[in-house]
Amino acid sequence: MQTRSGRETLPWLMGGVVFLALLLAFLLYFRQDAGPAQQLSSKASRVDVVAQMQLGLASASEAEKSSVMAITDEDSKSFADQARAATAGVERNFQEIGILLAAGGNQREKELLVQFSETFTNLKRIDEEVLALAVKNTNLKAYGLLFGAAASALSEMDTALSRVIAKHAESADAKRVMQLAFGARLGALRIQALLSPHIAEESDQKMDQMEASMGKEEVQVRKDLDGLTTLAKLPGDADLVAAASQFSRYEEVKARILSLSRENTNVRSLTLSLSQKRKAMALCLDSLNALKLAILDEPIAGVTYGRVPRPR
Fold first, then answer.
1. Is 159 in contact with 171 (CB distance < 8 Å)?
2. Which residues pair with 300 in a beta bridge?
3. pLDDT tens profile 249-283
4. How many angstroms separate the CA atoms of 54 and 73, rounded?
5. What is the CATH number assigned to the segment(s) 43-136+267-296?
6. Do domains 43-136+267-296 and 138-264 have the same CATH topology?
7. What residues does each domain of the chain span?
8. How far does Cα 98 stand from its chain's mean position?
9. What average pLDDT score do residues 67-78 get?
10. What is the architecture of the domain spanning 138-264?
11. What is the CA radius of gyration of the chain?
């Protein structure tokens, strides 16, 4: 049962359909009877819209690349917004050229537009995936922690262990203190050295291998620190307690780094941009170029575009 609102809206909808049908019929009639000047104008309009689409795709691609390469969340988001806005402009041009081809294009041009539509749909899907990853910047954030909080914790741990060595340089356990302290310091540095390639790595399998190596080093560092506490004069030593505390802090930061590194958004977005996105972009531009050439090659009676007619 129709509602009152539906009954009132129906005449308007029917009127709109009739209007569009009449408009299309008028345009088709006009196209058939159009002279060379009007046909040239129609051709120029279609070519201009296609050129705008090509420019829009180029602008969107440039902004997408900038979003991927930006080093701050703010810049990444700003460029991502620009890329989406340029893509939206291409979509509007797509609707416009569709109307123009319906009124004045040939079958070949319409087929090329359908071909572009398919490639453009795929391009938009890839673009959205790239931009969604780019704005997260997890790899950059992981590097920030690596050279910030993690490096700071290691530096303070190293300083504390250096004081432990210096205080017990003359004790009977001096050699053992030095061995254990240096062992802990070197193990922590080995972990730090593995984190940078982990952040840059794309393969989960290689990340697993690096994390396994880090785990072994952590066990050894803890073993060395625990060994220091068992020596006669070291239990309760403030510097040794500080060193152990800083290593615990380092492990917490390391866990955050690994989590961000595993998301791998910068690496993944760059890989997509340089592989799938590049291929999809090339297909879109090829389709538009073919459409432009098809429009330009439309014959117009009496117009040779400066070419000398071939003798019969």
1. no
2. 303
3. 999 999 999 999 999 999 999 999 999 999 999 99
4. 28
5. 1.20.1440
6. yes
7. 43-136+267-296, 138-264
8. 30
9. 94
10. Up-down Bundle (1.20)
11. 34
